[in-house]
């Protein structure tokens, strides 16, 4: 029976991956409280510039910052989505926190997947090269890949060069763009394009198949902060600054 969506993984696996990503979206959006919002210190100096230079009122600014935090969480989940899709191709499996993201079941391939090409600094790149090199040394028939799903070009090439002042090279360590990695694992040259084209249909099918009562709670962070401003008489940004930095010299006077 012919697949409805793509021809390199089953329809069920495709929909399962979408379901997992949908759950990540729901979790990220589900009731961002003030406590969650403050987990990473809020840069209220930047927010002040944003408000004045971009002529944005404080409430809209904070709502946008909350959405930015949600988006950051979702970006991590997109990388997991690709891992799960690729792990559904026959002959391959996901790492499940084993030190690699994707491997061939016969140990002839190991890969670390990054959603974007610019998500690593030099120290991270050095650590990744060393890790892939160890896999290549331990498994003599294995080719090891740094996968960039969203890359600047389409490529598959040996990863070599200067990282942190050291020369790195290995005969079986490569870097590869997302389209070519999908093609390599699936045997289908246009596999990533197939995925892209089928997503709108598959997502609609998935959403139509689930209960519609999976509601998302309203983010409460802004309302909690506004409630505090009614008592303190501070502006929203001053309130956030006070609650994040009252231990800084002079900030307790806000």
What does this structure look like?
There is one protein chain. By secondary structure, the protein is of the alpha/beta class. Helix content is 51%, strand content 14%. It contains 9 helices and 8 strands. The chain has helices spanning 11-29, 34-37, 44-53, 58-86, 122-138, 178-186, 191-209, 221-232, 236-245, and strands spanning 92-94, 102-104, 109-116, 143-150, 156-158, 161-163, 166-168, 173-177. Strand 1 and strand 2 (102-104) form a beta hairpin. The longest helix has 29 residues, at 58-86. It starts with 10 loop residues before the first helix and ends in a 9-residue tail after the last helix.
Strand order of the largest sheet: 1-2-3-4-8-5
Distance between the amino and carboxyl termini = 68 Å
- Please tell me what the overall shape is: globular
Number of strands: 8
Proportion of residues in β-strands: 5-15%
Poorly predicted spans: none
Count of runs of 4 or more consecutive helical residues: 9
Indicate the structural class: alpha/beta
Radius of gyration, in Å, reads 23 Å
SSE order, one letter for each helix or strand = HHHHEEEHEEEEEHHHH
Helix content: 40-55%
Instruction: Tell me the major beta sheet.
Output: 6 strands, mixed
Q: What is the typical, i.e. mean, pLDDT?
A: 92
């Amino acid at each position: 029976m012919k697949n409805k969506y793509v021809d390199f993984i089953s329809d069920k696996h495709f929909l399962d991956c979408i379901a997992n990503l949908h759950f990540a979206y729901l979790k990220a959006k589900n009731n961002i409280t003030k406590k969650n919002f403050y987990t990473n210190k809020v840069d209220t100096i930047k927010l002040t510039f944003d408000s004045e230079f971009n002529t944005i009122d404080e409430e809209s600014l904070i709502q946008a910052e909350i959405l930015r935090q949600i988006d950051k969480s979702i970006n991590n989940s997109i990388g997991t989505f690709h891992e799960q899709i690729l792990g559904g191709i026959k002959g391959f499996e996901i790492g499940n926190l084993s030190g690699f993201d994707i491997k061939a079941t016969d140990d002839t391939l190991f890969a670390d997947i990054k959603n974007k090409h610019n998500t690593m600094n030099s120290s991270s790149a050095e650590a990744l090269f060393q890790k892939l090199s160890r896999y290549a040394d331990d498994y003599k028939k294995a080719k090891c890949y740094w996968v960039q799903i969203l890359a600047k070009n389409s490529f598959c090439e040996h990863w070599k060069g200067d990282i942190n002042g050291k020369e790195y090279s290995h005969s079986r360590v490569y870097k590869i763009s997302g389209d070519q990695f999908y093609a390599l694992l699936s045997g289908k040259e246009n596999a990533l394009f197939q995925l892209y084209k089928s997503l709108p249909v598959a997502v609609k099918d998935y959403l139509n198949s689930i209960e519609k009562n999976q509601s998302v709670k309203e983010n409460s962070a802004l309302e909690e902060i506004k409630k505090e401003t009614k008592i303190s008489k501070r502006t929203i940004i001053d309130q956030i600054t006070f609650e994040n930095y009252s231990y800084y010299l002079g900030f307790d006077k806000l």
